[in-house]
Amino acid sequence: MQVTIHEAKTHLSKLISAVERGEEVIIARRDKPVVRLVKEEPKDAPRKLGALAHLNFQIDGFEDPALNKQIEDDFYAEVEKCDPEDQ
Length: 87
Description:
Blueprint: E1 2-4, H1 5-10, H2 12-20, E2 25-29, E3 32-37, H3 65-81
Parallel strand pairs: 1-2
Antiparallel strand pairs: 2-3
């Protein structure tokens, strides 16, 4: 379906419902198509840090307590810098 900008402003919620039902909606200016409304596809859920921590796996020959401590310290230092609003 094609609508004018004025019609789109007046009936935006109806147009959104139409898009959610799978219809194609094009907004035109003076009968010239300008914008196409499309349904937003959900993105994958954000990855959670430590999601595999319960598995407690370890690779033989890669245990270095000093390196592990440095990695842990660096990780938590970066976490503290993060803005809570970003999460």
